[in-house]
Amino acid sequence: MDVRMIRVIGARQNNLKELTVTVPTGRLVAITGVSGAGKSSLALEILYAEGQRRYVETFSPYARQFFERLDPPDVDAVEGILPAVRIEAGGAVRTSRATVGTLTEIDDLLKVIWAQAATWRCPRCDCDAVRFADAHAVWSWCTEQFRTPDAGNVGEETGNAGKNGRAAGERVAIAWPLLVPANWSPEAAWRGLAAQGFSRVLGATPHEKGALWWVVSDRLRFHADERERFVAAVTAASARSDNGVVLIARWDAVAALSASEGEPPPCWEPPRDGVWFVSLTDACCPQCGEAAPRATPALFSYNNPLGACPTCRGFGDLLEIDWDKVIPDPSRTLADGAIRPWQSGESQQCQTELEQFARARGIPLDVPWETLPDAARRWVIEGDPEWVSWEHSWPKHWYGVRRYFEWLESRSYKMPMRVLLSRYRSPRRCPACHGTRLTPAALAWRLAGTTIAAFREWAVRDARAFWETLPVATWPRGVRLAWEAARERLRYLDEVGLGYLTLARAARTLSGGELQRIRLTTALGVELTQTLFVLEEPTAGLHACDVDRVIAAMRRLVALGNTVVVIEHDPQVIAAADWVVDLGPGSGERGGSLVFAGPPSALAAHPTSLTGRYLRRWHERWAADRNAVASATHAAPPSCVPDAESPVRGKLSAPPAAVVESQTVPNGRAKPAAPTLTLSVRERHNLRDFTVTLPLTGLTVIAGVSGSGKSTLVEEALVPAVTAALAGLPLPDGVTLTADWDGRTERGPDPAIPLPIAEVLWVDQSPLAKSARSVPVTVLGVWDGFRKAFAQSDAARQQGLNAAAFSFNSGAGRCPACQGAGYTRIEMQFLADVYLKCPVCDGKRFRSEVLQVTWLGANVAEWLAMTVDEAIARLATDPVGNKLVPPFAHLAALGLGYLRLGQPTPTLAGGEAQRLKLAAALAAEKGAAKRAPEAHNRRLIVLDEPTTGLHEAEVAQLLAFLRARTAEGNAVVVVEHHREVIAAADWVIELGPEGGEAGGRLVFAGPPAQLAAATTATAAALRGAAHSPSPLATRTTTPAGIEAAASGKEANDPQLRHVAEAPAPYTGAVSHPSSVAAALPAPADETTRHVSVLPPSAPPSAIAVIGAHEHNLKGIDVTIPHGRFTVITGRSGSGKSTLAFDILFAEGQRRYLLALDAYARQFVQPPPPPAVDRLTGLPPTAAIEQRTSRGGWKSTVATLTELSPFLRLLWTKLGVPQCPKCNVPAAVRSAEAWAEALWQSGAPPEVVCAALVRRRKGVYQDLADWAAARGYETLFVDGEERPTHPWQRPDRYREHEIDLPVARRPRTEPELARAIAAAWRLADGWAKVRVAGTWQVVSAHAVCPACGDALPPLDPRLFSNHSPLGWCPECLGTGRLLVGGRGESDDGQPRSFAEAVEWETKHVDANRPCPACHGSRLNPAARAVTVAGLRWEALERMTIAEVAAWLDAQEAHWRASASAAIVAELLPGLRARLQLLDDVGVSYLTLDRAAPTLSGGEAQRIRLAAQLGVQLTGVAYILDEPTIGLHPQDDARLIAVLKRLRDQGATVVVVEHDARVIESADWVIDLGPGAGEHGGEVVASGPPEAIRNHPESLTGRMLRDGIPHRLVPPRAPPTAWLTVRGACANNLTGFDVAIPLNRLTVVAGVSGSGKSTLVHEVLAASLTARRPVGCRAVDNADAVARLVVVDQSPIGKTSRSCPATYLKCFDPIRALFAATPEAKARGYRAAFFSFNSGEGRCPVCNGNGWVAAEMAFLPTVREPCDACGGSRYRSDALAVRYRGKTIAEVLMMTAEEAATFFAAHPKIAEPLRLMTEVGLGYLRLGQTSATLSGGEAQRLKLVAELGNRAARPTLYLFDEPTVGLHIADVALLLPVLHRLVDAGHTVVVIEHDRDVWQEADWFIELGPAGGRDGGRLLYAGPLDGVIAAQTPSARALAG
């Protein structure tokens, strides 16, 4: 496979005809062709869908459920596909929080910059904060202050030399604040101060916990001689201050307020004159001492609780009740419905209550609201003054309209309530933040005097100018880079023509063109590479002057190493492309073939391409424009003249026929002659005091640049105003109409203004229905006519079929199996649903009896299959049919004669849907005209960009169609940018001159001939940018051979399926890894280094990480080559996982998610960006991690490998149901037979129901409405009878059974049979009969012929143990015995994953299978279904290899049967997955193997196989130690798999320590040199040879020298044994094995050989239970006094667990702090210093160090606690120090630091020293246990055991203790294991590491393979003897 190309082979999607096409990567590719040619099918449904689907498959199943599940395309193969992103033009952003700033990520950059570079200004004093590096800086600053009498003007010179001289010797006081609690007496406080040598206090300021005493630290003369004393006093005072603030005052200003020892200090507020505040820790206000709040990026985010305004929660507006909407017509009376919301629905009761209370109160009901007294109106709104509450006041008092809305708001969690409230709410600017959305704390920070809110309100172009003035040279490197990234994003926005937008502009208010260009800049900003970006008509809605900007943006995406595929008709874009794919030659069935593929220059010369012909003419016009520039001053340029075949040629030389003359108005613009309509708009968005005149004849085009106000003018002024005037309603507020016609002028806002038109017809850009039931014939509104014609036929009358029978959306005539859809949907777990043609109706939608009825020679299905042209021809032969022709004639005239009447509208192209809407609107308009014969015949037709999605040939058809409408006397107004349409218009109105606030003005009105001479943007576009040459004339030519191939006949012959050779694409790979580092520029000095974000001249060839600071990384720069196999290695804790997962994987996936639209992102929130300065060249990423948790007991190998969905579908389609009781195949029973059996049962049937809903989720309001409309008063919901009206909605998240009662208590057996048959007709053959209170299923499908029981239908969910339809009712699909109460929800299904895990932990007995299903997990009916004689439970007990063999054996039989189509669809996917699982070495696993029993290596290799199956190109795969759990003999197979991923075009990054993997890599990055604080640096990078030879690389030294063996002298032969006899659990074969006591024993073997079974499930289980488990006996078990299992399970699951608490060394630490003098003086005990309980922990975060905050519509976030700054403790606890350290600082120490610090305390130092010995010295004492890796957790457990001085003989069982360990760390671990043995204990280790093997006293090997081929004892003895045994381990040792 060529990874440089995307190759689509044999595409049959929609109308594509076995299309094979090649798309070069790293290029701009345009796909063009007429509408319906197959462009969207190729670009969106194949390229995008396959790229997105394959990449989303790399996500977890949980995350996948939130993405749109795109169907696999109908193709033979798609090779070389990249991860795909679709940049849509439409798709409104649904969240109110999204703005231009958030969509482009500029806001994220601004938050970082303001947090680090802005200055805080005290809001109380309006004074800038000051910050000092040390006390010497304070001295210098005070020198300036003492020269100035006004402390608020820092540095201001007074010029008073005399005063300056006096100040030099002035006495000053330096004081620090002491918090004196309210419960302390002044005497006690003075005693404490006196004990420390302090005798004077300046005063006391009030504090919430007591008072702050300002204790004088020193008094001195402010003189140069006293500088050192001043510095020492400030430093000492700062150290004693809790918040670091120090007071400095002139003594004469505060002397009168001071108090001496023993005196109570006076309460005071420090005077402003002569008093200053400084701080050595944080910035503070010099006038009041308030410390600047901690500035974090979250503070400047209105989407974060720290920064969001608490009043509006960050929305900027408050939604409040709009009383003008509640009372829209003040002229109405209360009785006449003045209160609008109470006039319909259930709220009508409120109207009744209002009238009752009003009469009692004496309020008149017949007086208009506007004339009611104020008191009466206040009573109606506010209610009775005596009102207290609903409980106390209702129904005695009137509640008022306001409380009615308050009641609704209290129930706004219900959707109907929210919808009702939305009708009567309007936004009001938040009074707290005034629309800035931020808290006052955030607004106090200024950058160059500007708040972040003010910056967001500037236009982008103004923001760019301000951005360049910032003093970035002095900023830190990371902030400079953020500044530059923001600058580039602002530049992108400005350059694509959006400079008029503000960053605060709500995304919901953006037009489609604006939104798409923003998404383009977002894609540029996220800097993804090796990604496929698919754009659909990016020029739709764009003015011609903006097209070049869009092309430039797409070019930048290509320059970043991406592939851009654009569906486009604009010749300017096609000419700018590198490669063009032209589809056609026609539309629909006449399209779908490859007409051309090659460079645009060859397309222009192509003889048969319709696109080439238009491109050629466009090129000729361009040249003509260039030549005519000098002379064309006022004449229309050639580019404006339509072609010879255009119906509008010659229209420009003279005024339009309907416009008889033009007048010149004072402003120089032309004014059309009568009849006209003048529209005035006072204010709508950017339209202000706007007036325009439109002719009511001919074709009028409204043009202008994007954002100029065109849509506002049409959608919010013209159409609503004309519609209101025609209906006699009030005109929109601020809009005035003036009509000039027949010599009269009518003006108004008066709604009665007469207009010279009959109606207005508005066709906008809203999409057609998305349902497959929407088809052209229903959109046109003519299907009712067809159904009536069918119903009037003789055949229909004979069968009693009415018109409803011929509806496929409802009625009894549609197919009961597919409900008229024509297909059946098969649900696939975590995969796209499968749609199959309905087997009952064969896709024809109707019952057979309906299809027997014909009209004009065709039945109803045949009519739906006809094209429009065929239907017109047949209808024209019949008088009734001829009446249905006009709507179809419109379609044919618009070029849509090829559409089929029954084609689902979701399959239509954009241009087809637009024209279908136009035809449908005209059809509806004709009907309206008949209803208003007295009105004028003239109609106003308003269209919004009708050329969207149209080919140039179709634009000509559209123009001819519109000209025909104007010839009928109608006026056509079109909002349009297309130059052909503008040139063909009779009148042009242009708005501008720019977008946004710079637009909204009328810049031209007149005929296009005059426009050509104007200076507007549209005029320049019509002239064709004549100063620039044609892109076709200046294109870089392709090589001659390629050009020839592109233009030859063979290259474009669709039958030959050939394409022209693509240009040399971007490969994304490097020739040699070492060239990557050499190619990168050397790092410059930190102060001058400048990283540009301009697109590189060549695409990036590597991932470049610049300045990584995440966790312990120390600003490292790393280069990872694209398309290579890279290993990241280093000491444990050196930062490998941080680099690989927290940076590369997280950022790659985050950038992909950010490239999606905001609606998709709201379901899967992108992670926060990592702490890096820059990261370039990063493609989308996929992680294959080691996880401790691999799923619950419901998860099996079949579900994890995703084999289960395929197998379930296979069983559904090929299965033969059998009775689980009688074991005989099922048969079908008639309604009469069922009635006979039920009648003979003895008890009379009570009710017969149609089983409409069977185990489906939903609320089923539509079903209830349908039943109620047909006279059914009740439905049975889960067996409970409920009324259909009002409908009590069931829980939407549970599965329900809903039954419709069709008969009650039938009196005879025939009556029962008829009732059953009627129920079957309604419910596809399913009914229920209640007999003696018990429901019995009565099926028309399958029953047991022996016992008569009905069997469930074959459904994929029947074979799923995750569905209540299929799981065993006893074990709920776990396959294990359930103990205790189930504790689940009513349907037996836990509500969430967390609840499921908790439930399984409590109620699942993992050691005992379910007695009902014997571990198969399914119910009896599912287990009884067979395929080729094989039951499902037998299938799941097969291994993967056995399943593959079984499929091979059955394939020939299936392909020869009627199931060939189903098998052909399923087997390829099944086989591919089975082969990949074999490739990664897990084919020994059985399908029913539970996930909890899988090792970490097995689970990871299963995920690796899934990624191989995805076959994505360009992705960066990140793997976490894939050799874990892998036997050394399998290393070569794993390495081959990783290289296979690389060869598919992926970048493979592996975190690994295994020497063979490292030496097989293309590139190695070695981090270190140590762990934790001592790591985080790049020691070496390059090819493996470079690492091996690097002098400073510990990894290189270990690769060269290895670990010297043996570390301890050989021990004597063992004398005592622990013997397991008859080990038979799982796959063990009943062998005996002896384990020596007091020795180090290694248990080895290939994966799946039974190692964990032997050690854990046999040996450990038997010793724990004190009886044999999984074996016959365990001899000498009494020799083991204690058993300790040291595995990789977490040591704690909460943030409160940490190494210090786990090792129990935190208790003595707390005791040391409690023993300090400060703690004793304050009465603090050891418990006070606990962050888990006690009074010392922070009360805000309860000792967590973080707080969780919920935000509306956003996920809950964790932020560092502001109260304690993340320290977990209160300030008074932090005031106590032990040897200069606070308790929080001790928790931040590493184990190595703490061992030295507490060396004098063995209880503390000993476990910490042991942590250092096992390689964990880098861990911090307070590090959350949940952040530890499995290897770190295991070694911590080992440290805890080493510290245990128990003398009893202990058996230690270790499960792969070298997991996650570097070779050097293994060398540290081995002596520790030997120490345990030397202490008299026994150590048994399951291990694959050969270094551990070579230290073993005894070696046990199981094998020889995994699964059923393993479980045998291959060797047991000293290591020396294993070589002779020739086992897999022996071969590994020998290798």
Question: What does the model show?
Answer:
The protein is α/β, with parallel strands linked by helices. It has 71 helices and 66 strands. The chain has a six-stranded mixed beta sheet, with helices on both faces. Strands 12-9-10-8-11-13 form a six-stranded antiparallel beta sheet. The chain has a six-stranded mixed beta sheet with strand order 28-33-34-25-35-36, sandwiched between helices. β1 (5-11) and β2 form a beta hairpin. It is globular, with a radius of gyration of 40 Å. The relative contact order is 0.07.
- How many helices in DSSP terms? 71
State the low-pLDDT regions, or none: 148-167, 626-672, 828-832, 926-935, 1025-1031, 1033-1097, 1382-1394, 1750-1756
Helix/strand class: alpha/beta
Kindly estimate the percentage of residues that lie in beta strands according to DSSP. Answer: 15-25%
The helix content, as a percent range, equals 25-40%
- Between the first and last Cα atoms, what is the distance in angstroms? 33 Å
Average pLDDT: 81
